Amino acid sequence: MARDAFVGLKALYLAELTDEDELTYETPVDIGTKAGAVSIAASREISTDAAYANDDPWIEAETDSGGTGTLEIRDILTDSTVRELIAKLTGYLITTEGDLLATDKPSKPCALLCEQSGYIHGRRKCFYKIKMRKPDFDAKTKEGSTTIGSLSIPFSYYKVKLADGVVTSTRDSFYGNSTYADFFNAVVKTYAEKGSTGANTQH
């Protein structure tokens, strides 16, 4: 029997979040193919709050508040569409010449969709709301060997409300799931729990 395991990063898409109350997004834009996705690292922040009674913890509540991460891409220079989208999302002012000014414009929230590839099939993941920050600058002279640079963009990710009682920060889709094949066509917002017969009107 063939075994599977996650081995790399195969795809990267960004979809601007245009209305946070209605949770509407632009069509996801393929960043990975045009700019080269190198890595995505994210740390989740979970707090545990205890209520006490009789001198002992009576009940403990876990809160998933999202987290922080870093997106690393290889080439932001070749494709102007990718460059200007990332500039817009990170809060740069784009001049009429196409130059980028680091002003105090706020960053714009977006969804980040990616695929952690596998030996056979990968896992597709959506961060429903991230805010990217302007990257740091790092340059050094060429030496005996050439190291090809990349751009590291820090981000924070947050929870969104899919429906009453359904609040989440991320979504994972696996091969064979009904959401898997079209995962990158639009941000998936379905929320019915398996085994339930409740309404599930989001798409």
Please count the beta strands (DSSP E, at least 2 residues each): 13
Order of helices and strands: EEEHEEHEEEEEEEE
Number of helices: 2
Number of separate structural domains: 1
> How many angstroms separate the termini?
35 Å
Strand composition percent: over 45%
**Helix share bin:** under 10%
Descriptive overview:
With 203 residues, the protein is mainly β. The protein has one domain. 7% of the residues lie in helices and 47% in strands. It is built from 2 helices and 13 strands. The protein has helices at 32-35, 80-90, and strands at 6-19, 24-25, 29-30, 37-53, 56-73, 93-94, 100-101, 110-118, 123-132, 151-158, 160-163, 166-168, 170-174. The strands form 3 sheets. Strands 1, 2, 3, 4, 5, 8, 9, 10 and 13 form a 9-stranded antiparallel sheet that branches. The radius of gyration is 20 Å and the shape is globular. The chain starts with 5 loop residues before the first strand and ends in a 29-residue tail after the last strand. The relative contact order is 0.21. The model has no long low-confidence stretch (mean pLDDT 82).
Task: Please tag this protein with its features.
single chain, about 200 residues, mainly beta, nine-stranded antiparallel β-sheet, two-stranded antiparallel ribbon, 2 helices, about 5% helix, about 45% strand, globular
Question: What topology emerges from the helices and strands here?
Answer:
Elements: E1 6-19, E2 24-25, E3 29-30, H1 32-35, E4 37-53, E5 56-73, H2 80-90, E6 93-94, E7 100-101, E8 110-118, E9 123-132, E10 151-158, E11 160-163, E12 166-168, E13 170-174
Antiparallel strand pairs: 1-2, 1-3, 1-8, 4-5, 5-10, 6-7, 8-9, 9-10, 9-13, 11-12
